[in-house]
Amino acid sequence: MNADPNKDPRLDASAQDDPLFVADLPWHQRPFYRRLFTAVLPPVGLWLLWRNPLHKRRQKIVGSVLACIYCLLYTAFVLWMLSLAGVIDFEFKGGFGPSIVRHKTVPNYHLLESHRTSQKESAAVPAPGSGLEGAYWTDFRGPNRDGVYDEQPILTNWPARGPRLLWRQPIGGGYASFVVAEGRAFTIEQRRDEEFVTAYDVETGRELWAHGYPAFFKEWMGGDGPRATPTYSNGLLYSMGAQGDLCCLGAATGKLLWRKNVLADNSSSNLTYGMAAAPLIVDEKLIVLTGRETKGGSVVAYHRLTGTRVWSNLDDQQAYVTPLLTTLAGRRQILVVTSRRAVGLAPETGELLWEYPWRVQNNNMISMPVVIGTNRFFISAGYGAGCAVVEIAQTNGGFAAREVWRNRSMRNKFNASVYWQDHIYGLDEGVLACVDARTGQRLWRDGHYGYGQLLLSSGHLIVLGGEGDLALVRASPDGWHEVARTRALTGKTWNVPALSKGRLLVRNCAEMACYDLRPPRLPSTF
């Protein structure tokens, strides 16, 4: 049969292997080059696929799907090879999936040990506490655990380079914050295969003491090391390790007074991302959370001086939320968030006063609730949960929780919000936002800071971003007004900052620093 003279012979697939025909094709349409580009540069190969008249539309669509799958596999292979070569690394920073980084934020133990050795070999340690006596920032997120600093005014007119740096030095791993008392800053950190509770001189950063014990919590997504911030009370320091090691130490010397593992003591098991709730002092009792559900022992009160059990209650698996002491509807109570609800407990006996159902995907409840006024609190989470304001009211013989409003105007993932003048300020999936606490309406959302943390002071927000940026933002419902921004730390930063006597303490898994936020002294007038 004679060939159709009007048909382009290139449309006959059998002709593609004819050497004379191939030689007549443009170079970029020849099979060898098409296969080469497809293997080495998939996007170019895909473009050539659609330009080639030898392929029908159906073949092009199927080829495109296969090419896209190949592109994903090819990209994954290239990234894997680069990571093996040490060119890149992968780090979870709070968003969707891991981020590609040059280096992960991890402690440099050699640098840390060398630095601490040089400190010990240098001049004599000055007496800590000079001009810094007293105890104010003694709890996680401040004296009321609400992220508000009102001890004294702070500097709100920052220089172009940011506030004055007092000192900077390496630190061990982990996500704990600082508490400050008697001129000392206390934290807990990972050093090789041990957790260390440490004390530093606030003015110089010099390590004053370190108490270590064998413990190393590893978690591939959230990161390694301890999570819970210590608590200071009346000359004693209480720390909770990532694997449940509860220690009571003398704040002046670091001497261990008593220690127990709360998981073993309550026949419990650890949470996926480790024990993260800071201990809470209520009168003579030390309130702690005990991991996964235990019959009647999810929340336990120990005597703060001896460690003996006073009371225990709840069967709930715990969340990663620090409890707080507050007064709601005229009743002093402990506000606790578990994996399935928020509850109020009587501090005297642990009795359940009220409950409000609150669930978050995979128990990823991390953000602390914020008390609003005399009988309301705000609660929020990421992972699709959103936020709500809950009102506690007295009823016949007890208390009841009522939902005032609920929406997705604020989604705090790793970071708690702050409350000021009827408005809530927080990081909504890494973006700073303002919500009307009365109605739940979001008034603005601007300023990308990542999954960092924030405090409130002098009508301003002190924002420590997820990449270590330090920013000062006006707390105003009228809009986002960033006053200044500087780089305070390097790398992933999830740790909450601490503020005492005008000194701002910041840290992440590799370094710590102290900034001076004291306003200039005004001349005396007579």
Structural overview:
This protein has 526 residues and is mainly β. It folds into two domains: 9-87, no CATH class; 109-516, Methylamine Dehydrogenase, Chain H (7 Propeller), CATH 2.130.10. The protein is built from six helices and 34 strands. It has helices at residues 19-24, 31-40, 42-51, 57-84, 109-121, 262-265; strands at residues 89-91, 99-101, 164-170, 179-181, 184-191, 194-201, 207-214, 231-233, 236-240, 245-250, 256-261, 280-282, 285-289, 299-303, 309-313, 324-328, 331-337, 341-345, 352-357, 370-372, 376-381, 386-395, 398-407, 418-420, 423-428, 431-436, 442-448, 453-457, 460-464, 469-474, 482-487, 498-500, 503-507, 511-516. The strands form nine sheets. Strands 3-34-33-32 form a four-stranded antiparallel beta sheet. A four-stranded antiparallel beta sheet has the order 4-5-6-7, with helices on one face. Helix 2 (31-40) runs antiparallel to helix 3 and helix 3 (42-51) runs antiparallel to helix 4. It is globular, with a radius of gyration of 29 Å. The N and C termini lie far apart (117 Å).
